[in-house]
Amino acid sequence: MKRFADLTEQEILSLAISNEEEDRRIYLAFADGLREQYPASAEVFEKMAAEETTHRSKLFDLYRKKFGESLPLIRRQDVRGFIRHRPIWLVRPLGLEEVRKYAANMEYETANFYRKAAEAARDASVRELLFNLAEAEDQHEQIAEDLGEKILTPKTREKEDNVARRMFVLQYVQPGLAGLMDGSVSTLAPLFAAAFATHNTWQTFVVGLAASIGAGISMAFAEALSDDGSLTGRGAPIIRGVVCGGMTALGGLGHTLPYLIPHFWTATFISFAVVAVELAVISWIRWRYMDTTLSMAAFQVMVGGALVFIVGILIGSS
Q1: What DSSP string describes 292-318?
Q2: Considering the entire predicted model, what is its pTM?
């Protein structure tokens, strides 16, 4: 890899042309990935890609006048210290807010890199060229803001943000909530049945651990195999399965871990408190994301949890 300061003026100009072409393709990938769910934002990125094409043409015209038609093959990855971008455009579905931030950071970071490299450059012509490139990147960022104001009106942005929220709920909140409820509630009966039947904290912990992990595996497969997400918009089945299974196991482990404490009643009272916190968190999530009133969410979760809790104690004490 070459140091940026060691590049010739020809190589720097060629690198700038390569960067503009790469950025154009990134913006087109963003537009393609957002078009179905967020058409207004897709239009913004298409306009930005067109701007990158215009800037590349101007840079290439300048290069042709100075060095002819042949461009040396030099890319970002060939230069030490240059910006490395994560290829989030390869992931589907694209997150709207993540893409917006990525584009803004890409323009800002590129301009900042050019500016710092110009300060370190010794050749006057190279220094001038780098400063010009930094100014061009600053203009790109302003263009993005202007395009966003023209196309993404407050009403359109609100609509797209609502779509993003629904997608987040479908892909992460719903499977996570289903897992947390199953893990927190379904493991209460076997855990406290074992606790009050044996009064042995280690045996109770083993039962709770087995119930939590088993429920997590079961819920992960059930969620992943429920649908492929192509029609429901619920996202990748593997991700949903991991989220659901992980939250199921976490919900059960929360009130199982206190039984690592040797003293039975200390462990049991701490486990009671953990159960209360888990049910309160589930109620809050249902209120926050599932359009359920807080009082109704709390009533449904607390009553269900209490019934399972009592069943476990009665069976274990019989």
Answers
A1: --HHHHHHHHHHHHHHHHHHHHHHHH-
A2: 0.49
